[in-house]
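Quick check before the chapter quiz. The format below is the same one you will see on the exam, so make sure you can read both the input and the output lines.
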Amino acid sequence: MPLAPAPRFMQIASPAGRSPADELAAGLLAARPSISPKFLYDRLGSALFCAITELPEYYPTRTEAAIFAAHATQMAQALHRRVPPGGTLIDLGAGDGAKAAGLFDAIGPARYLAVDISADFLRSALDALHRRFEAIEMIGVGLDFATRLALPDGLVQAPAVVFYPGSSIGNFAPADALRLLRQAREASQGGALLIGADLVKPPALLEAAYDDALGLTAAFNLNLLRHADRLLGSDFDLRDWRHVAFFDAAESRIEMHLEARRALSVRWPGGERDFAAGARIHTENSYKWTAESFEALLRDAGWHDVRRWVDSQGWFGVFAAVA
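Here is the expected output.
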């Protein structure tokens, strides 16, 4: 099998046309202040999240990994109904690419598109993966697909598998999740989808996963303010804020917030915001689904012939579907 060329990289500008500083300022000045969860993942934030996945309270990563390990062959068979070996694998929120790499042998892609918010973030990961899988062409695509998933023409060798593991779809409100899944169907060009979704379970289990005893999730959330200071030029003092996480049963979601410990003002070039003691900045939602409601969401987005694999406790689901 011929060797693929060295990985290449491209950064795609956000269709919204707003800079990170503009987006942060707009969120802080909103009636209900918020910061997008994508800003959680600077270099330190990404390292903290990797540590979080090792915690006993954080079940999603190990539960999903066990499902992949037990059912990779069946998943590949489901995907191969529409995308035979030798196609394109589009990895959304690729990170270090480890989850996708674990399925390379089963799925057999010829081209791997690793999509994350920053192409630079993907460089070391793809260089390392390319040394292990020299026959697979690898392309790092820097794209904020939370705004819109739109890949350049000619990049996808149709049909393609769209891979979105880790329950990150839960960061999107149902209407936004529906939009993204429709865009993923378009990106697949008649291909298939493999996606992970966290399922509804007792609130105590959910809340412990997002507010662990060691305090790593609190550090992860608070680090967002350090990242905002760098991007926006703001003057957040982490000592003035505390991490808050809880399950909203009516919305079926975990919410993460940063709560002001005292009355304070935050300033940045061209703006400022006063916060009363106890005021919150909303930093992340993580929606939880039933297996049936997530299948219905996939069908509403135009995916069909849905198949699912769920762990024995019913905590997490992996779903395959075709366009």
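If your answer matched, good. DSSP finds ten helices and 13 strands in the chain.
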